[in-house]
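Below is our example:
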Amino acid sequence: MSQRLAVVTGGIGGLGIEICRQLALAGRRVVAADLASRGDRIAQFETAVADLGGAVTFEPVDVADFGACADLVRRVNAALGPIDVLVNAAGITRDGTLRKMGLEQWTSVLRVNLDGVFHMCRQVVETMCERGFGRVVNIASVNGQTGQFGQANYAASKAGIHGFTMSMAREVARKGVTVNSVSPGYCRTALVEAIPQAVRDEIVARIPVGRLGEPAEIARTVVFLAADEAGFITGANIPVNGGYFMDF
């Protein structure tokens, strides 16, 4: 069997880089897809994956643009072959209470966080079904399950990922393609560490394990769902939140 190929959107973000690293350490070839305009992040990404011997490479994409996603997949297919694993980790926030939220705050978050999942999945679903194998992992959020003050746009986009995941999973299950989501809780990323310390302390106090999560803990869950051996798990949402939100 040839080496599996994975594409990770949002692949140069704090969580995305760790997902790329863990997939590569699990034996995958990995393409990190993200905005080309983020030069500082690209440099950090290149440093972070330098020890992996070229197993992780970068390709530019704007997941909010359907055509750009189609072009990305064409380039990857031509250079490396068909995509076996797709991880949709691209996401943004534009926080504000609903009474003050502008239309652009709403639409920009939905375009990236939810439309981007459709844009990428639409490009790979046919080939995965034809080949009889595929692993799609969509990165949602605990706030898509619980809601969050000032995040009606973000919570709606992440909750929408769950419905999309289950629907796609039903459509492709008999073709050897699994579709699952992972809902991280509060993790040690730049986004969370930008929260004022007093607010972070309050968040940690509500996490039963008593700490923030580490990006590697999310990434290892993605690797598990992306494995060949995970073929009987589909349409599931895996919470990785330290007990911050529990449900069944």
Residues 85 and 199 are 36 Å apart (CA to CA).
